[in-house]
Each structure stands twice: as structure tokens, then as C-alpha cells.
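Why do we bother with holo predictions? Because pocket geometry can differ from the apo form. Keep that in mind while you read this record for glutamic acid.
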Amino acid sequence: MVRNVGRYAPSPTGPLHFGSLIAAVASFCHTRSQGGLWHLRIDDLDTPRVVPGADRAIRETLAGFGLRHDGPVLYQSDRRAAYADAVKRLRGASYAFDCGCTRREAQSGSAGLEGPIYPGTCREGLPAGRSARSVRLRVAAGVIEICDRFQGRYAQDLATDIGDFVIRRADGITAYQLATVLDDAEQGVTEVIRGADLLSSSPRQVWLHRCLGLPVPVYGHVPVIVDAAGEKLGKSTGALALDPTQRQAQLVECLSLLGQAPPASLIARSVGSVIDWAVDNWAPDHVPRRTRCRRRPPPGQL
Ligand code: GLU
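The structure, written out:
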């Protein structure tokens, strides 16, 4: 029997906040409700953005909320050799190519979903006199479709929506898209449950899985929490900090936002009991089929 394997992959750029907790809770419950393993990965590749000690704080916060992972924690900073090897293989197989364009030059193409489409300048080889800055993955025309566990069908034509994308940045850092695909495969992840801000990355990741001959996981993207003004709750937004004295209430709030209708009485129980209830009663079909959802202000702050 193939066992489900899920994961949570925070970036250690600050403490875990309410917006990240909801994705962690969804991933944990979804995996555990099927008796699966749940792994933790620390996405610490983007060194300029990494905050020293944030990884430890995130791990402690997850444990405090009863979200216990299986096995060793995978740090992306320990995986550089595997990433370099994959870039070499992709270049060797002509899936990837060296790009000598500056950021400005690369952005001179037509509009795509996440910015301009790469104009193809270095696609057939570096123009004379240019040297490699980044490495890009060549995309093929044709629709890539995912059947998202919560959002339903999502499709992109990478050629017209995204373009040839960077897998190794000009600063030498492996791009998120490649690192996440290699690590999901390394940890045997079968289900990627995360925030809907990453939904549009999934077709690129499916393409990378295919180029590398790796099994494609199932994807599920839960709504990203936005405030009353419709702004995504990110680390830069205030009023997001998790309160270690109110763990049950915050878990119950996450579960409500995930459509799980937790009984209010859970708040008076232990953190472990709330998590057990959430796993036992996890109803994936009740997760809202929306990419954003609003956090209601707590009573007293209305
Ligand atoms: N590290 C990414 C983030 O914190 C998540 C990566 C993923 O779940 O694929 O946004």
C-alpha cells in the first residue's frame, strides 16, 4: 500500500504567523486523516531573506500547536549539491539553457501571468559576447492541467502564460521552483497542500517533475487569508502574530476558515484534543473553493 506523505515547507524569514498556520493545519490534517506521514522542510535557500533563529522558532511554534512532524527536518541549505546536479542534468538534456540577459532585458517580452514572458534571446545559445548569468528551463507549448484537491481544475499554457523560467538565479541561488520539486521528490511527498498564493506555481512544478522524470504529487491549495481590506496576511502585515496563550482559539479559527465547523466547546479543551478532533473530522470537501478568505476581527476589536 502506498502511504500518503505530506509536508510543510516554511521559509525562515520570520516567525510563523496566522496566515502560515492555516496552511500548516490544513496540510497536517489532510495527511494525518489518511494515516500519512507529515514532513517538515525549511526553505532557507534565499539567504539574504533568512532571519537567524527563525527556523528554530518556527519549529517550536509548530510543536506548541500540536503539529508534530515525522522524521528529520530537511534544510534546503543542505541540498545544494543535489540542486547543482539537477541543473547539470537539465542543461545536459537541453531542457535548460544558460541565459545571459539582465533582469531588464529578460523583461522586455509580452505580458504573462506573473510578469513579462522571457523573449527567448538566449534560448538557442548565448549570443556572441554574452556570458551566462542565470539558467532557465525551456517550456513547451501545450496546456498543463492540475486537478487541485480544493480548487478544482487549474490550467496554464506555460509558453504563453509564464515563459522559460529561471531555475538558477544570477546570484547562484537555486530558484524555489526547482528546489521544491527536488525536495518533494526526495521526501517522497505524494500530496502538496499549501496556500493558494502558490497555485500558479504548480504547472511549472509539474513541468519540472516531468523533465526530471519524477512522480508528480497531488496538489491542494487552501485559501490565503486576507484582512478586511482584502490584503494578504503576510509577515509584513501587523496583527498576525500568534498568541501562545490562545492556541486552542487560533486553531479553532483556522478550522472554521477551512470550512471544518469545529464546535466552539473545543476552545476549552487541550491543544492535543483540538488537533485530534481536526484530524478525525477533516472534511476536504468542505474547504472553501476560493483562493482568498477573510479573517474576521476577534470579538472586542470590531
Ligand atoms: N517556502 C514557501 C513559502 O513559505 C512554501 C513552499 C511550498 O509550500 O511549496 O511560501
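The first helix runs from residue 18 to 32.
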